[in-house]
Amino acid sequence: FLCTQIGYSQHTLQPQAVIKAFKEQNQSFQIFAPFSNQSQLRSQDYSDISSDLQVYQLDQTALQRMVAQEPERMTLQLPAGQQTLDLELYAVNPLAGRDFQLETSDGRTFSADQLSGKHYRGVIQGEEESLVAVSLFEGQMTGLIASPERGNLVLTQVDDKPGEYLLYESTEMDQRRSLDCATPDSYQPYRAEELA
pTM value? Predict the structure, then answer.
């Protein structure tokens, strides 16, 4: 569902226009390369998930530097075989002005202001029709990359291997992971004002 929503929203978000405006104003993009490519060493470990994926090792020091510097604009470099995938990103706050509370399965509640994390939106350098969303939270990074040339890519940390990340095309997954949602469903549809 999320990848479909991002693909659908590409035309309304228009991050390529924002990136272009920054460049026209000679705004700099700080370069970060927090991942090393481990694909040749580890891709066999994930052959049951996908036959075509990248395996990365996250440099925690580089991630901490990114979080501490809180760049407003950055180029996030991801190893992609013999090349580098350059993601041109700018900071966004998708929760700004939102009046809601998040309740966890163990009963803790958080307001929008209490949720930590830094969020970025942007494009793949040279691919104007792409859309990228990257979030940094508590020593982790997650991302979605939608591109007509590359499909919908997912950047995620491996659950049981801190610091190890996968980049894979979402439709190429050979094995779907089961979802265990602890939130009870009231079976009440959303009201229009809740979705606005």
Answer: 0.75
